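Worked Example 4.2. Consider the chain below.
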Amino acid sequence: MTFSPRPRLISVLSLLICLAGCGETGEPAGDPAAAIQFHLIDQASGSQAEQLTVKDTTTQFRVAPKVLMDGRAIATVESVKEPAGDRYNVRLGLTQSGAQEFADLTGAHANQLLAIVADGQIVAAAQIPGPILDGTFMINGRYTEKEAADIVAQLDAHLRRP
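Applying the procedure from the previous section yields the following structure tokens:
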């Protein structure tokens, strides 16, 4: 899945499916990973959506209050250098149950906008093209090495298991 919020510029891109395996982890209900949340971006006026800012920008989106999935579905997060050039992306691998949950979510919300929220800010946002079935997605922001490392650190801080 490709998410593209450059820290200085946000653009909604198509989602890119990346093939990778992932394993199931058992997380307790009070896991700090639950602080990473997946929400739909609400474009309807007058709704109960909350206005959130994209990390390191002044760009804001209205985010629907319902949490569709949370960080307990994420098994791994890593920075990945693009094959050509000096830009980086961030790859997230999902747990086995998270992959199924994400496939259901992306299938049910095709063509809608999805946001990953952490620490009260939007980390990434993109349009869902349809079901994403492989359990891995890429935040394709063409970041600098530092920008990608900052996103990884922000998400990984919530994923550290006791």
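Residues 5-24+34-159 form a domain with the Gyrase A; domain 2 fold (CATH 3.30.1360.200). The chain has one domain: 5-24+34-159. Compare this with Example 4.1 before moving on.
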